[in-house]
Write a structure and sequence with these properties.
By secondary structure, the protein is of the alpha+beta class. It has 14 helices and 19 strands. Strands 1-2-6-5-4-3 form a six-stranded antiparallel β-sheet. Strands 7, 8, 9, 10 and 11 form a five-stranded antiparallel β-sheet that branches. A four-stranded mixed β-sheet has the order 15-17-19-18, covered by helices on one side.
């Protein structure tokens, strides 16, 4: 049996009152005395049930009844959900979810939402409102505010009342409607009820609700909004005015009215709940702050983040949107070190920083907190999604606990990530080899080297002494060539997207194995190895060819110090 280790590891949390394990994440936190062969034939349900039986003391389960209710499967893990029962009645939100690694069939995680402080007297015999009466009681309660009430099927729960969070929606009228509906309930925070739960839809005002009625006296405990709202709306470039318009003549001198026509309305996702009715550009992974000069107030809104392209507040919105989207994208590869680091600490963003210069950077503050700052010279950097994503490429290396910037490889990967990931938003496939199509436009050009189809090679004379960004552009071009060979040159968007995902995933996996400031030959060889563990080596020949065509033979034994 697999017994949970007692540990002060940060990946394990405990209940403050009774010391029960509340969560852990990591197979290494579980002892595995059982041979692998003995585990191979057992189902996830059998493994998780045996794990809970073995660790009932750690989870304080002696007086807790659990029923297996659901199994969920991912690409590499399976999770089994157990619902808590109290006197034979399901406990609302009372669950334990136990995760198993599919490859090793080892228990690797658990999240414990058991309620340990339930009154003994809540039994089916204490129900005073019969199930048949519940729909009419719900209609009576909701008729104080709504017409056209329709109800679903009642379910009996042991239910602990908890206040709700205001909906994350841009509409003040909608928030007020939801808050008025929820105010109909008279439940006491923290109190445990024997409650009938029922879904109800209303015609006017229109809504979808989850309603809780006291099963002992028929009072209305709580009304919850069942809808999951998109998020606050905002205006951004997708991904930039030149790419979306197909007009390479646009520049920092282009009239604002023309640029406004290239803005698109999008959902600004993962935001913190509003403070009252006010949203700020702070969310799950990002904190928008005024970090560097010049001073600029962080945008706030009670409606939506919809600012004209010439409004400096637009820069904060555009930066937040693209950083949030690229983090969401990168998280999907399930590279644990990256995900854990990103989820543990929000990254700061200052879209009006760097003393207003035509430059941007990633760094950390004096407290060690990571942040990105963008300058406003020429085309403001935060207005170009490619610049935003490139700079996040540095943050990605920080979150992977590796520094690869001395030889320019971080710069190169940032260029590639911006080009290959944002290529899926380039509906016209216009100037797709340009690393910064908006910031480095023809009217504001500052570099002739930041292009993914550069002719430079690792084998060029004097390669080791050229400027850092130019040196990195060779790696960017190598990765771009690999991307093209794996489907990036296809006429089908789905093939191009799959090719970009494959190369980005291999690069992320590769960083796990690199030491700081690894050489380009080591980067190439580590990429080949990453392909082995992820794809069985299916792309090894394409990787070697991409590097060879850029003057680096990965099959040659390199001696001495490598560049």
């Amino acid at each position: 049996m697999e017994k949970l280790k007692s540990s002060n590891d940060s990946r394990m949390t405990y209940d403050a009152d009774n010391g029960a394990v509340r969560s852990f994440f990591g197979a290494d936190l579980v002892e595995a005395p059982e041979p692998g062969a003995a585990r191979t034939g057992r189902s996830a349900g059998d493994m998780t049930q045996a794990f809970l039986d073995e660790n009932k003391d750690a989870f304080k389960l002696d007086n807790v009844a659990l029923t297996r209710v659901e199994e969920r499967r991912g690409s590499a893990s399976t999770a089994v959900t157990y619902r808590q029962q109290h006197n034979g009645i399901p406990v609302y939100d009372g669950k334990i979810v136990v995760g198993v690694e599919q490859a090793s069939n080892r228990v690797a995680s658990a999240v414990n939402k058991v309620d340990y402080a339930l009154p003994a007297g809540l039994t089916r015999d204490s129900v005073r409102v019969p199930e048949i009466e519940v729909p009419e009681r719900v209609r009576q309660h909701l008729s104080a505010m709504f017409t056209g009430v329709k109800t679903g099927q009642p379910s009996l729960y042991v239910y602990r009342y908890a206040p709700t969070t205001p909906p994350a929606t841009e509409s003040r009228a909608l928030r007020e409607k939801v808050q008025r509906a929820e105010s109909l309930g008279r439940g006491e925070p923290g109190r445990v009820y024997l409650a009938w739960q029922m879904s109800a839809d209303t015609a006017e005002p229109r809504g979808n609700w989850e309603v809780f009625v006291d099963a002992q006296d028929g009072a209305l405990i709580q009304v919850k909004d069942r809808r999951r709202y998109g998020s606050v709306k905002g205006l951004v470039f997708v991904p930039d005015p030149i790419t979306s318009s197909g007009n390479k003549a646009l520049s920092s001198a282009t009239p604002a009215a023309t640029l406004n026509g290239e803005q698109r309305e999008v959902d600004i996702e993962n935001l913190d709940p509003p403070n009252g009715s006010t949203f700020r550009l702070n969310g799950k992974w990002i904190e928008t702050r005024d970090i560097e000069s010049p001073d600029f107030d962080v945008p706030a809104t009670g409606t939506g983040f919809k600012f004209p392209a010439g409004d400096r507040r637009f820069l904060s919105v555009n930066a937040y949107f693209w950083i949030d989207r690229v983090i969401d994208y990168l998280q999907r590869f399930n590279v644990q070190t990256f995900n854990d680091s990103v989820n543990a600490q929000r990254i700061g963003v200052d879209a009006q920083g760097v003393n207003g210069d035509d430059n941007s950077h990633f760094t950390t503050d004096l407290q060690g907190r990571p942040y990105l700052a963008f300058g406003e010279g020429g085309v403001p950097d935060a207005a170009d999604a490619h610049v935003v994503v490139h700079e996040y490429g540095h943050a990605l290396h920080f979150h992977m606990h590796t520094n690869q910037n001395a030889n320019g490889s971080e710069e190169g990967f940032g260029d590639f990530l911006a080009g290959a990931w944002l290529d899926r938003f380039n509906a016209r496939q216009f100037q797709r080899e340009s690393v910064f199509p908006w910031d480095n436009n023809e009217g504001d050009r500052y570099s002739n080297d930041r292009f993914l189809d550069t002719r430079r090679k690792f084998s060029d004379s004097g390669f080791g002494s050229i400027e850092l960004h130019v040196k990195g552009s060779v790696l960017a071009a190598t990765l771009w060539d690999l991307f093209l060979s794996l489907g990036g040159s296809s006429a089908k968007a789905v093939d191009r997207t799959a090719a970009a995902d494959k190369v980005v995933h291999m690069y992320l996996e590769m960083l796990v194995s690199l030491a700081d400031e690894s050489s380009y030959p080591d980067i190439g060889r580590a990429l080949v190895q990453a392909d082995v563990v992820l794809n069985g080596g299916a792309n090894g020949a394409a990787i070697k060819t991409a590097f060879l065509n850029r003057g680096l033979n990965l099959d040659t034994q390199h001696r001495g110090r490598e560049s």
